[in-house]
Specification:
Length: about 110
């Protein structure tokens, strides 16, 4: 015997060294089931300072509303946190004065 317990325990009888269990995963390897998202989007309002977020412009705000009438999240729209808050506030104001619908009818 080599000093180890000889029963068929957790490792099914395989003879592993202790260092095999404490190994850190390879951080450069792609995780299975995850997709690469490509390039990070740049906030259009930070890139072009001439663009303004206005609640009275429903055509510009429709880009940030989904088909069901929900506000599109930052990770999809590409806005920075500051401009996403302003877009959300503008959408809510436009809904209150009936420039944008609260829900989309089928």
């Amino acid at each position: 015997m080599n000093g180890r317990n000889n029963d068929m325990g957790r490792n099914g009888g395989a003879d592993y060294d202790d260092r095999d269990f404490g190994r850190t995963p390879d951080l450069n390897a792609d995780a299975p089931g995850r997709r690469r998202t490509g390039r990070k989007r740049v906030c259009r309002y930070c890139a072009d300072k001439a663009l303004v977020i206005d609640y009275k412009d429903p055509q510009a705000l429709k880009y940030f509303i989904s088909e069901r009438g929900k506000v599109v999240p930052r990770r999809i729209s590409g806005n920075c946190a500051r401009h996403q808050r302003k877009v959300t506030l503008s959408i809510k104001r436009a809904r209150n004065i009936a420039l944008l619908p609260f829900t989309v009818t089928a």
